[in-house]
Design goal:
- The chain is mostly beta strands.
- About 0% of the residues lie in helices and about 50% in strands.
- It has strands at about 5, 10-15, 20-25, 35-40, 45-50, 60, 70-75, 80-85, 90-100, 115, 120-125.
- Strands 2, 4, 5, 6, 9, 10 and 11 form a seven-stranded mixed beta sheet that branches.
- The chain is globular and about 40 Å long.
Amino acid sequence: QAQLAESGGGLVQAGDSLRLSCANSGRTSGGSVTGWFRQAPGKEREFVGAINWSGTNKDYAESVKGRFTISRDSASNTVYLQMNNLKPEDTALYYCALDKSGWSRFRNLRSRYTSWGQGTQVTVSS
């Protein structure tokens, strides 16, 4: 059973950078996908990006392409979300989640992810 824990959030100014971590203390099977989602107050939880188990496939929402980068460290079973040039509209609670069913064209759908962390808050001031 995967147990995910996010960390690294905080309060920053526009243009700053943050790196979020998603540590998985459980077992991760080959073929699994780790996704990042975010939810701003009053809004739906939205897809930010995803990475497959080997790190060879990555995908990003259009709103973060060129600014955010996902990577993983297999040795520590940790996935990172490097966020550069942050904007006030990036303010949200950020979650990581695990999809055990593999890389799919539906990887942006919340319903595919069966394990979720508790989230870490990112606040970007203007």
